[in-house]
Design brief:
This protein is mostly beta strands and 114 residues long. The chain contains no helices and ten strands. A hairpin with a 6-residue loop joins β4 and β5.
Length: 114
């Protein structure tokens, strides 16, 4: 099982980024997927979750209305569209199967700063 996150970078407050996570080593379409993030000095937190068909999503209160999770089962990829970014969104972002103790990928750094 492997996850490769990409798409992070430096963005100004109010800007947007789209993260991608390419998954391999399992039947992607059969698993609920989630995005997590870890800010400096803080514990990793759950950001968003999407069901197997992509028809049901859930978000942390802190990102609700600003972030959108989606998936492409044909490409074994899950996405996180992040809009109206704030400084407090600065973190390393990871994806993983929900409720599975998979090894974490390298993550992708998102820095929101002017």
């Amino acid at each position: 099982v492997q996850f490769v996150e990409s798409g992070g970078g430096l963005v100004q407050p109010g800007g947007s980024l789209r993260l991608s996570c390419a998954a391999s080593g399992f039947t992607f379409s059969g698993y609920i997927m989630s995005w997590y993030r870890q800010a400096p000095g803080k514990e990793r937190e759950l950001v968003a979750t999407i069901n197997t068909a992509g028809l049901s999503t859930n978000y942390a209160d802190s990102v609700k209305g600003r972030f959108t999770i989606s998936r492409d089962n044909a490409k074994n990829t899950v996405y996180l569209q992040m809009d109206s970014l704030k400084a407090e969104d600065t973190a390393v972002y990871y994806c993983r199967r929900r409720s599975h103790a998979d090894a974490w990928g390298q993550g992708t750094q998102v820095t929101v700063s002017s």
